[in-house]
Amino acid sequence: MAQLSILRYPDARLHKVAKPVQAVDARIRALITDMFDTMYEAKGIGLAATQVDVHERLIVIDVSEERDAPMVLINPEILWSSEEMLKGDEGCLSVPGIYDGVERAARIKVRALDAEGRSREIEADELLAVCIQHEMDHLMGKVFVQYLSPLKQNRIKTKLLKQDKQEKQDRRENA
Ligand code: K1U
Ligand code: ZN
C-alpha cells in the first residue's frame, strides 16, 4: 500500500495543465492503485493525478457510502452538460478544512478510458457529477477556491500558508 503525498494549495504545481495519458500500461495501473490508496486513506471521494504531482489526465473517484465503487477516468472529456446549474458545498484534499459553495452543471455526460483502456460513456448527476467536474478542473490546473471571491481566496491562502509554517515548526521541535 503506497501513500502519495498530496499537494496543498497554494502550491503552484496545482495550476499545471495535465497532458493526455499516452498508454494505459503497468506504470499507469500502479499509479491508479496508489491514488486509490491515497484517496481512501484521506477519506476523499475523488483524487486527480495533478494533486499527487503527476501531470497526466487521470482521475480516481468513489462517491459510494460503502467505499466499494471505484471509478477510473483516463483522458476524460465532457460530451454534454445540462443548462441547469446547482450550487453545493465542495471540499478538496488539497485545501484541507475549507468548504464553500460552487455552482456546477447539474448533469453531465463524459467519455473516458477505464483502467483497462476501454472507452466508456458515463452519465452523472448529483455528487458524482459535481465530483467529476471538480476533478476535471484539477487536470486543467484549476482549484475550486478559484471560483470564490478574491477576498476569500486570499484569506484561504493566508490560513493555509500559516498552517504549513506551524506544521514545519512543530516537526522541527519534535525531531
Ligand atoms: O481533493 C479532491 O479533489 C477530492 C474532493 C472531491 C470533492 C468533494 C466534494 C465536492 C466535490 C469534490 C474530496 O473528496 S473533499 C473531502 C470529502 O471527502 C468530501 C467533502 C464534501 C462532500 C463529500 C466528501
Ligand atoms: Zn480537489
Topology, element by element:
Blueprint: H1 26-41, E1 46-48, E2 58-61, E3 71-81, E4 85-90, E5 100-105, E6 107-113, E7 119-125, H2 126-139, H3 150-174
Antiparallel strand pairs: 1-2, 2-3, 3-6, 4-5, 6-7
Bound molecules: ligand K1U and zinc ion.
Strand pairing plus helix content: what structural class? Answer: alpha+beta
Q: What is the overall number of helices?
A: 3
Order of helices and strands: HEEEEEEEHH
- Looking at the overall shape, the CATH architecture is Alpha-Beta Complex
Which fold does the CATH topology refer to? Peptide Deformylase
**Overall tally of domains:** 1
Strand content: 25-35%
> Which molecules are bound in this entry?
ligand K1U, zinc ion
Radius of gyration: 16 Å
Mean pLDDT: 97
| Distance separating the two termini | 26 Å
Give, in spatial order, the strands making up the sheet with the most strands. 1-2-3-6-7
Protein name: Peptide deformylase
Catalytic activity: N-terminal N-formyl-L-methionyl-[peptide] + H2O = N-terminal L-methionyl-[peptide] + formate
InterPro entries: Peptide_deformylase (IPR023635), Peptide_deformylase_sf (IPR036821)
Enzyme class: hydrolase
Walk me through the structure.
The chain has helices at 26-41, 126-139, 150-174, and strands at 46-48, 58-61, 71-81, 85-90, 100-105, 107-113, 119-125. The relative contact order is 0.17. It has a single domain (12-174), classed as Peptide deformylase (Peptide Deformylase), CATH 3.90.45.10. The chain contains 3 helices and 7 strands. With 175 residues, it is of the alpha+beta class. The model has no long low-confidence stretch (mean pLDDT 97). It is 31% helix and 25% strand. The longest helix is centred in the C-terminal third of the chain and has 25 residues, at 150-174. A hairpin with a 5-residue loop joins strand 6 (107-113) and strand 7 (119-125). It is globular, with a radius of gyration of 16 Å. Strands 1-2-3-6-7 form a 5-stranded antiparallel β-sheet. Zinc ion (ZN) binds at residues 92-94, 134, 138. Zinc ion binds next to helix 2.
